[in-house]
Design goal:
It is built from two helices and no strands. It has 59 residues and is mainly α. It is elongated and about 90 Å long.
Amino acid sequence: MQPPPPPPALKRPMPARNPLLTAAADDFNFGVNLVAPPPSAVLAPPPAAPVPDDYEFGV
Protein backbone atom coordinates (compact mmCIF):
# COMPACT_ATOMS: atom_id res chain seq x y z
CA MET A 1 0.00 0.00 0.00
CA GLN A 2 1.48 3.33 -1.05
CA PRO A 3 1.34 6.39 1.20
CA PRO A 4 -0.98 9.16 0.02
CA PRO A 5 0.66 11.91 -2.05
CA PRO A 6 1.47 15.16 -0.20
CA PRO A 7 -1.02 18.00 -0.57
CA PRO A 8 -0.36 20.31 -3.55
CA ALA A 9 0.53 23.25 -1.27
CA LEU A 10 3.75 21.48 -0.22
CA LYS A 11 4.85 21.10 -3.85
CA ARG A 12 4.90 24.85 -4.47
CA PRO A 13 8.51 25.95 -5.16
CA MET A 14 10.10 28.45 -2.85
CA PRO A 15 10.35 31.96 -4.35
CA ALA A 16 13.85 33.04 -5.30
CA ARG A 17 15.43 35.22 -2.62
CA ASN A 18 17.59 38.17 -3.50
CA PRO A 19 20.93 37.46 -1.74
CA LEU A 20 21.60 41.17 -1.21
CA LEU A 21 18.24 41.79 0.42
CA THR A 22 18.56 38.63 2.48
CA ALA A 23 22.01 39.65 3.73
CA ALA A 24 20.78 43.15 4.54
CA ALA A 25 17.80 41.77 6.45
CA ASP A 26 20.02 39.34 8.36
CA ASP A 27 22.42 42.15 9.28
CA PHE A 28 19.52 44.34 10.39
CA ASN A 29 18.04 41.58 12.54
CA PHE A 30 21.43 40.80 14.04
CA GLY A 31 21.97 44.45 14.88
CA VAL A 32 18.55 44.77 16.49
CA ASN A 33 19.05 41.61 18.53
CA LEU A 34 22.53 42.73 19.53
CA VAL A 35 21.45 46.20 20.69
CA ALA A 36 18.12 45.30 22.30
CA PRO A 37 18.38 45.25 26.11
CA PRO A 38 17.32 42.14 28.01
CA PRO A 39 13.68 42.07 29.18
CA SER A 40 14.70 42.53 32.81
CA ALA A 41 16.38 45.84 31.96
CA VAL A 42 13.23 47.06 30.22
CA LEU A 43 10.94 46.20 33.14
CA ALA A 44 13.23 47.51 35.89
CA PRO A 45 12.86 51.24 36.72
CA PRO A 46 15.96 53.36 36.11
CA PRO A 47 18.08 53.89 39.23
CA ALA A 48 17.59 57.27 40.87
CA ALA A 49 20.59 59.56 40.56
CA PRO A 50 21.95 60.61 43.96
CA VAL A 51 21.48 64.32 44.66
CA PRO A 52 24.22 65.96 46.73
CA ASP A 53 23.09 67.71 49.90
CA ASP A 54 24.60 71.06 48.89
CA TYR A 55 22.86 71.14 45.50
CA GLU A 56 20.93 74.39 45.12
CA PHE A 57 19.79 75.62 41.70
CA GLY A 58 22.98 74.47 40.01
CA VAL A 59 25.22 76.90 41.91
